[in-house]
Write a structure and sequence with these properties.
about 350 residues, alpha/beta, Rossmann fold, 6-phosphogluconate dehydrogenase C-terminal fold, Alpha-Beta Plaits, four-stranded antiparallel sheet, 11 strands
């Protein structure tokens, strides 16, 4: 691949353009908002000037409802040898393109499983896709050249290709992406009119659950409108669990000992099923989740403190597998939770204490 057109210069489109440009591909940027394309170009994602002839690949990075029309228009204009989109819903856009008379052999639906709470070209980064799954949904009609171009794009963005059926993909993202967004928003909505004293008690648990609730509503309305059935199916199952949990909690309030025992079993059941589901989420490098242990370190809110902590851990010969930062409300300090292999806990704890760090827990 030597040339590409990226149509849509939001977070995903600009990030892909940055990755391609960094690896020597000449990228032309198009957007209905000319200022967005110029902003992406100023960031080094390519040029806002149109190509002189046909390019190798057109990457369509627009909301799901606009994918089919955008691809069909680009095909009629002969923009590229191959066309793919990066929308988060796959079945509907393909059917819409077929209805518009588009050339399905030159088109491939794809979806990089990456994103941020922020949107727009200024949120873009060329590392956005590194190590992340990038779903490809080829069919028997897909031309081999187009599939190869898509695989090259994934490789240049340093992502991991995953081949799926389009409708199976939509059911999967309804479970692992779209429903979590709604549930996160619903929990965060409880805080809108909560008493100030309650809000001041917010800790890492509520921050974790509501992190993605900061996402832009307009973007998610586009996504959910393109995949309503599968999302509704998952939410219906969640609603059934919620109903059962409410009933179990009410039973715990009963004066009847049998009802309290039944309620406790109901709560335990949902918690255990949650444990089992959480254990299935792939861990580092896509492998089965590892049983890491945590070393909690008190850290001041000063420049360079995290870098110093990481350097001290490295000097101790310990690899940090993951981390979380819990900020202390109203204080210039926080708690950094370093996740490490169990065999490393004692050595890391001793080394950090020797270097003056305050270990908690």
């Amino acid at each position: 691949m030597r040339t590409a057109v990226v149509i849509g210069t939001g977070l995903i489109g600009t990030s892909a353009a940055l990755a391609l440009t960094a690896r020597g591909v000449v990228v032309h940027l198009r957007d209905a908002d000319a200022d967005a394309a110029r902003t992406a170009a100023a960031l080094g994602a390519g040029t806002a000037e149109p190509p002189e002839g046909r390019v190798d690949l057109a990457v369509v990075a627009v909301p799901p409802a606009y994918v089919a029309a955008t691809v069909a228009e680009a095909q009629r204009a002969g923009v590229a040898r191959g066309y793919l989109d990066v929308a988060s819903v796959k079945g509907g856009p393909r059917r819409d393109l077929e209805a518009l008379g588009g050339d399905l052999s030159r088109y491939l639906g794809t979806h990089p499983m990456a994103g941020r709470e922020r949107s727009g070209p200024l949120a873009a980064t060329e590392e956005l896709f590194e190590g992340r799954p990038w779903v490809l949904t080829p069919t028997p009609e897909t031309d081999t050249e187009v599939l190869n171009l898509a695989l090259e794009l994934v490789a240049l963005c340093r992502a991991v290709p995953v081949v799926m059926d389009a409708d199976a993909h939509d059911r999967a993202v309804a479970l692992v992406s779209h429903t979590p967004q709604l549930v996160s928003s619903m929990v965060a909505a409880r805080l809108e009119h909560a008493e100030e004293t309650a809000v001041r008690l917010c800790g890492q648990g509520i921050r974790d659950v509501t992190r993605i609730a900061a996402s832009r509503p307009a973007m998610w309305l586009d996504i959910l409108a393109a995949n309503p059935g599968p999302v509704a199916d998952v939410l219906a199952a969640v609603a059934a669990d919620l109903t059962g949990t409410v009933e179990a909690l009410r039973a715990l309030q009963s004066a009847d000992e049998d009802k309290r025992r039944t309620g406790a079993r109901g709560i335990e059941d949902v918690l255990l099923r949650g444990n089992a589901g959480r254990d299935r989420i792939p861990g580092k490098h896509g492998a089965a989740p590892a049983a890491y242990e945590t070393v909690a370190v008190l850290i001041g809110d000063r420049p360079g403190e995290l870098a110093r902590l990481f350097a001290d851990a490295g000097a101790a010969g310990v690899n940090i597998e993951d981390l979380r930062i819990e900020h202390a409300t109203g204080q210039q300090a926080g708690l950094v939770q370093l996740m490490v292999e169990p065999r490393s806990v004692a050595g890391l704890t001793a080394a950090l204490r020797e270097r003056g760090w305050s270990i908690r827990g």
